[in-house]
Amino acid sequence: MRSYRPRAGETSSITRPDGPVGIGGRACVNRFPVPDRSPLRIVREMSTTLTAGSPPAARRAPGFWIIAPVVAMAAFMEVLDLSIANVSLLHIAGSLSATPDQATWILTAYTVTNAIILPLSGWLATTFGRKRYFMASIGCFSVASFLCGLAPTLGLLILFRAIQGLVGGGLQPNAQAILSDAAPPEKRGMAFAIYGIAVIFAPAIGPTLGGWITDHMSWRWVFLINVPVGLLLLPFVKALITDPPHMVAAQARRRERRDRLDYLGFSLIAVGLGSLQVVLDRGQQDNWFASHLIVAMTAVTLLTLASFVYWEWHREDPIVDLKLLKNPTFAAANFLMFMLGFILLATTVLLPLFVQSLMGYTAEEAGLLLSPGGLTIMLLMPLVGRLVSRVDVRFLISGGLVVVSVALFMLTRVDTQSGFFTLMWIRVIQGCGLAFLFVPINTAAFGVLPPEKSSNGSALINMARNIGGSVGISFVVTMAQRWQQFHQNLLVAHVRASSPELQAYLGRVRAYFAHRPGFPHAPRGQAYGYLYQTIIRQAGMLAYIDDFALLGLVTLAMIPFVFFLKSGRLAKGAHVLLE
To answer: Which of 7-21, 129-143, 224-238, 368-382 has the lowest mean pLDDT?
Structure first.
């Protein structure tokens, strides 16, 4: 039997298959004009109408639990590449006949282009369609990873890494926006928990995984591993993900207005964020403002970003919707997310440096030290996702900050004789606190945004976390080196040749070296060399302790900003936080 489709202007009567339903027992017949549309569009609209009356959990929850791991894996893959190549730089430099300093551009190229595309991802998703842009990002990221793995020279590897960061930068914010829209309101906290597992666990496991791959396979597989993952994800994304109605409507409006890319705004943010990342990544190596390059890049950063803010603020359709920051809750959430990235990546870099430079740990051992903390975050995230619907998010965030600060102050009590498990358990305690930050901050931020602004809001908050991480790494590495020089000068000033304690110490060291093979004729020189190495080691330990103490104080100082967030918890069945 052929189906009948009314022509434009006709009316149709539809009776529900379970019988006529009406008010007061009378049958209710729906009559409506049918516009001139394609059959496919009418079928889609009718199916949406017929399923609208079913319970939200029955209609959306199964789809969410299928979509969540696919989308989270795409974000995990992209974030992992921020840190997976860190421990492979020496191998890459040796293989491609480059210096270690030149090899660091492999990291810089990726972070620069990644930072440029992050804030633009919301505009790109609205213009081209979120699903289409997400799939293109996965496909192009896989191709760029393949090219990185086959790069024959360092120059080509840096170029392909820049392309990899550019095409993959949209994966993080779009993954978060997809999870937020796919989850029922009462499961939005769980959506952010799943996303948090991906983007917080990835930097923690990255160095360990990268070191294992480099030692047992080849540094090229650090990049090639993305190719099968990307090819596996693409068919699942195509089958499972659809653009929500508000995204389709926004894309249609933009197409009707024939909006073009804001070339001036794009140029300003590309140059500004690119220059900022160069300053942060190369500042310490080039001695900061003693370098003409760093001075020039800093000036360019300030000028272009200030111009960008002014230009975008007065545009009707900005590529980065900065006016979302007028909401106090969203602005405070962005600041807290910036500081979360600052603390997370600063400690993720600082603790391995401490154990490798002062305690003789290998890169793999340093990664194993961090991994239990990452696993703790992963296990606690689902619990926090449930708590955001029952507990005021401000209490969760404040409690998390207190726990993180306690763990950082515990690190100020360690020394070069501290054991592996002592440091590991401190990292686990810190992971417990970090798990109570990511989900509540995102819940508070997205709770005050209308659905059509989810992509733009996700771009801003992910950019805040990434820039915070870059700032945190640069800050703690610089301060560690500066404080080491400071403490070394203090310790040397207290070393006096006439000191009886010093002479007794040198006597013990000379006796030790006198019985060592290879040093029978130079015990005095070896004693003074050992003394110098001891001073440097102790100065380094004191510098790291100062860094941990400063991070602990910064964490405590964030607590007052928590109360700029809207009070309440994520109510079941509601989109916004309740007063």
So the answer is: 7-21
Range of the domain at 372: 329-579
Q: What SS3 state is found at 382?
A: helix
Q: Calculate mean pLDDT across residues 529-554.
A: 86
Does 284 share its domain with 367?
no
**Which amino acid, 569?**
R
Question: Is the dihedral angle over the CA atoms 310, 314, 315, 319 positive or is it negative?
Answer: positive
How many domains, the chain? Answer: 3
Q: What is the pTM of this model?
A: 0.72
CB burial readout 436-458, b (16+ within 10 A) else e: bbbbbbbbbbbbbbeeebbbbbb
DSSP secondary structure of 295-324: HHHHHHHHHHHHHHHHHHHT-SS-SS-GGG
Q: Name the burial class of residue 162, with classes exposed (0-12), middle (13-18) and buried (19+) by CB atoms within 10 angstroms of its CB.
A: buried
Q: Answer yes or no: do 163 and 273 share one domain.
A: no
pLDDT in tens, 154-195: 889 989 998 998 888 888 888 878 887 777 766 777 777 777
Which pLDDT band holds residue 519 (cuts at 50, 70, 90)? low
- Say if residue 121's pLDDT is above 90: no
How many other C-beta atoms are found inside a 10 Å radius of the C-beta of residue 39? 9
Specify which residues 570 forms β-bridges with.
577
C-alpha span between 147 and 223 (Å, rounded):
9
Collapsing DSSP states into helix, strand and coil, what is residue 500? helix
Give the whole-angstrom CA distance, residue 240 versus residue 245: 15
Q: What is the CATH number of the domain that holds 435?
A: 1.20.1250.20
pLDDT of residue 567: 64
How far CA 387 is from CA of 183, 381, 394, 434, in Å, comes to 16, 10, 12, 15
Q: Are 178 and 298 within one domain?
A: no
Q: What does the block give as tokens for 433?
A: 């606190």
Give me the mean pLDDT over the 376-387 stretch: 83
